[in-house]
Amino acid sequence: MDLGIAGKTALVTGASIGIGRGIATALAKEGVRLAVVARRRNLLEELQKELKTALVIIECDFMQEDAPTKIAEAALKGLGAVDILVNNAGGSRKFTLDASEEQWEEALTLNFTRQRQLTHKLLTQMMARNWGRIVNITGKSEPEGINGAFCAKAAMHSWAKGLSREVGKHGITVNSIPPGRIMSEQILRNYPPEYRQKQSEEEIPVGEYGQPDDIANLVCFLASPRARYITGAVIPVDGGLRRYQF
User: Who is most buried in 11, 67, 194, 199, counting CB within 10 A?
Assistant: First the structure.
């Protein structure tokens, strides 16, 4: 299927490894011109060599207060415009009952505030062209305990739904994808092979962990003109892991 996004421009955060790298790779294969963001410049340079295409490489720590401004300005300078924004940066933050205010602030900043700020930095130029796609990589809604990232991702879902109602008239869609168990550096670090096999067999209906491409395929579709009538949605890609309808 021709998605019609060749020649479009995209900014992908957290693009050095895992899901973000998979998304950047898939968009590049569709002919999208890319700006990619991560803390580790060497991994972004490796991605550029792998893709054999010029990338706007932005080395930035998302926790820096001026990160949204720095990223937006660099992407616009390098690409001329940003048609597609993929908010992928973030990380799990499992807390105990005595988690500090500093821990909570860091989790919410990393997983919600910076994404919101970056998006709003890029909205005006999207509205000026009456076209834009915002895709948020978020998280599940059934936490096993207290996790600052889950709370922040819930905020992302609420904010994205509200934003979609404001910008739809400008040809801009806003959608969220909560991944299931997708193979990544974090998964390999946190879950041993025995656990992954047991969970695959007992909890995931399709019987295996997903791959970054499984997320990237949906991102490419949502970023395309073919998805013009999908907005404000939360679409899990989890192999059926989640048990709840909503």
Answer: 11
What does R_g of the chain's alpha carbons equal in angstroms? 17
Task: Write out pLDDT tens, residues 202-220.
Answer: 999 999 999 999 999 999 9
Dig out the tokens for 85 from the structure.
């924004």
Evaluate whether 6 touches 225 at the Cβ level (below 8 Å).
Answer: no
Going through the chain in order, the beta strands assigned E by DSSP cover 9-13, 33-38, 56-59, 84-87, 132-137, 172-177
The whole-angstrom separation of Cα 18 and Cα 189 is 12
Residue type, 11: L
- Tell me the one-letter amino acid at 131: W
Q: pTM for this one?
A: 0.92
| Contacts of range 225-229, beta carbons closer than 8 Å, 24 or more positions apart | 225/3, 225/4, 225/5, 226/1, 226/3, 226/4, 227/133, 227/173, 227/175, 228/171, 228/173
**Rounded to an integer, what distance in angstroms lies between the CA atom of residue 180 and that of residue 160?**
19
Beta bridge partners of 34: 10
Q: Which of left, alpha, beta for 4 (phi over 0: left; psi -120 to 50: alpha)?
A: left
Angle between helices 101-108 and 148-167 (to 10 degrees): 40
On whether the CB atoms of residues 61 and 39 are closer than 8 A, the answer is yes
C-alpha to C-alpha distance for 171 and 133, rounded to whole angstroms: 9
Helix (H, G, I), strand (E, B) or coil at 78: helix
Cβ atoms 47, 121 nearer than 8 A: no
